[in-house]
Amino acid sequence: MIDFRSDTVTKPTDAMRKAMFDAAVGDDVYEDDLTIKELERLAATLTGKVAALFVPSGTMGNQIAIMTHTERGDEIIVGKSSHIKTYEVGAAAVLSNVSYQVVNEIRGALDPEEVQKGIRGEDIHYPRTSLICMENAHGSGVVSSLESMQAIHDIAKKHGIHTHLDGARLFNAAVHLNVTPQEIARYTDSVMFCLSKGLSSPIGSILAGSKTFIHRARKYRKMLGGGMRQVGVLGAPGLLALKEMTKRLCIDHENAQYLAQKLDGFKAFDVDFDSLDINMVFVKTSLDRDDVAQYMKKQHIILGGYKDEYMRLVCHNDITRRDIDTFIEAIHTYLRMD
Ligand SMILES: *Cc1c(COP(=O)(O)O)cnc(C)c1O
Predict the structure, then answer these.
(1) What is the Cα–Cα distance from 115 to 119, expressed in whole angstroms?
(2) Is residue 195 lining ligand 1, measured as CB closer than 6 Å?
(3) Residues 187 and 254 in one domain
(4) 166 CA distance to ligand 1 centroid (A)?
(5) Which of 87, 169, 201 maximizes ligand 1 atoms within 8 Å of its Cβ, making it the mutation to test the pocket?
(6) How many domains in the chain?
(7) How far from chain centre, in Å, is Cα 15?
(8) What does pLDDT average to over the chain?
């Protein structure tokens, strides 16, 4: 199967499976798992934070961050189409008892001016604004500039507000900006990134921040049932994700550019090049999307749907240049059948 739906579909590599087999493990609730400790140390170093915590999913990482940064009744600033606001089942309202101040984004990036307007002043009627959540790379495929992140960081600091980065695809953003992940994460107090997306680990994300932040986050992880035992079996592929798989993300970005150029060559497809910063291609089509998807499935090609008239095609470790050519050939055949 050539699966374009998401980079979450990546299977662990053979090296990862072997590392899982060989992993040194211990009870991580007792902080005895040496593999997880090594992973957390490396993750902290790479993000420029003092400490890090392995969590089962990105959603849990984000939610623990919100629980740790806020108090019941606070308000958090989130982008209109951010993952935290849109795709986490409204968890912040339930788990942290906070409300959302939803602000407009410009192509996925938070706009410093909008953020400034969203901050509550001193008034008996207002909730306290305690956290601003940024997202980079954004789920729309767009990478925010360091300048805009810095501007928001400065606004937050001026008002004594915490900042969190949903960096599920932090390493993709770093590749696009040609900077280290640390240079991006320096504009927020905490950062979450996924090992399980383009980095091909089977399970897991990292939450990183200050020593006291992670100390408190560890307790919330336990509260949510995310304290795990011999979890070094997941730490071992996580280490390979960071040491090896980060080096090859640029290939996915190049493949996405290649796929976009090829698709745009068809009259029936219109690629959104403005959102093509990382490994995701958003494309409009005049064709019947369900019919195309059904046909492709018979050719062992899985296409992902997306909002409105857009399709989203994601390049990752399990998709080669040749797979893309196979897909393009299949489109030619499909169009000839008309
Ligand atoms: C995937 C994703 C998450 C959540 O990760 P899960 O591991 O699927 O819970 C959070 N934020 C963004 C932007 C994502 O793309």
Answers:
(1) 7
(2) no
(3) no
(4) 8
(5) 87
(6) 2
(7) 23
(8) 97
